[in-house]
Write a structure and sequence with these properties.
287 residues, Aminopeptidase, 2 domains, seven-stranded mixed β-sheet, five-stranded mixed β-sheet, transferase, GNAT family N-acetyltransferase, GNAT_N_AcTrfase_prd, acyltransferase activity, transferring groups other than amino-acyl groups
């Protein structure tokens, strides 16, 4: 019975990935030959603005694919418009680390199709979890990862990569939030079927949540309260990319304020339990 259930879970994952690709108008497939891998290098170099020092190299991708790791690409009318790269954890951890993903096309549907292809690829190989990191200040990515995909926040990592100085990160510290995507979890399966439901900040406030960090009138962070227990809301700026380009000092204030709020609340037993798409992390169980 268990084997039948696992097979059915994998079948549904493949079907969900196929449906997501059709909805996005792309074809998603594994990549291994040199021409395709060169396309991934060029795509990422353009997205991150690192033509002279791309985020991944052809040699590394070639080695990854030879060793059985994941490199997938999304194609629209034969043109590569998105790619995702992952490598396996230590043998006993039953997990893939999704190191980098980028989409040149507009809209989030291509990214969704890529992640669902990666999920089905991993499940076909008996892998139970995919982990990755993202910048907690980027609200669209927080919503995409925690709600649209149903991943679970696991750890806050201050300045994880050190200085990056590219078109997306600027000179800001490279704080990251590590998430774990438990591929067979019913919540994840619902999300991948397009039935994800995120928390509502107004509902949380109505039931007693406190604001730990909000948005001030100047667009900067407005500290709330970190004392007490229960549920807290931690806000992020509407568009951190624009802030980094136009007001890097305020962007840095946001980095430090979100870091302080999330690490303090998680340090007191809180769990980051979702993200309201209006720009709020919901942290529950703070003691």
């Amino acid at each position: 019975m268990t084997e039948l259930r696992v097979a059915s879970d994998v079948d549904r994952a493949v079907q969900a990935a196929d449906a997501a690709a059709r909805a996005a108008g792309v074809t998603v497939r594994d990549l291994a030959d040199l021409a395709d891998l060169e396309g991934v290098v060029a795509l990422f170099a353009g997205i991150w603005g690192r033509a002279e020092n791309p985020p991944v190299t052809l040699e590394l991708l070639r080695a990854f694919t030879k060793a059985g790791n994941y490199v997938g690409g999304a194609f629209e009318d034969g043109r590569l418009v998105g790619a995702c790269v992952g490598f396996f954890h230590a043998p006993g951890e039953d997990a893939l680390h999704s190191h980098i993903a980028g989409v040149a096309a507009s809209g989030r549907s291509v990214g969704f199709a890529l992640k669902l292809h990666q999920r089905s690829w991993a499940m076909l190989r008996g892998v139970g979890e995919i982990a990755w990191t993202f910048d907690p200040l980027v609200s669209r990515n927080a919503y995409f990862n925690l709600v649209k995909l149903g991943a679970t926040a696991a750890e806050y990592l201050p300045n994880f990569y050190g200085p990056m100085a590219d078109a997306l990160n600027g000179d800001d510290d490279s704080d990251r939030l590590l998430v774990r995507w438990r591929l067979g979890d019913p919540r994840v399966a619902l999300a991948c079927a397009g039935e994800s439901v995120g928390p509502s900040a107004p509902d949380e406030l109505a039931t007693g949540a406190a604001v730990a960090l909000g948005v001030g009138g100047d667009g900067g962070p407005a500290p709330g309260r970190l004392d007490g227990s229960g549920t807290f809301l931690v806000g992020v700026p509407p568009d951190i990319g624009r802030l980094r380009a136009t007001d890097p000092a305020t962007a840095q204030r946001w980095r430090l304020a979100v870091r302080e709020a999330l690490t303090a609340l998680v340090g007191r037993g809180g769990r980051i339990d979702g993200f309201d798409r209006a720009g709020w992390y919901v942290v529950r169980g703070v003691r």
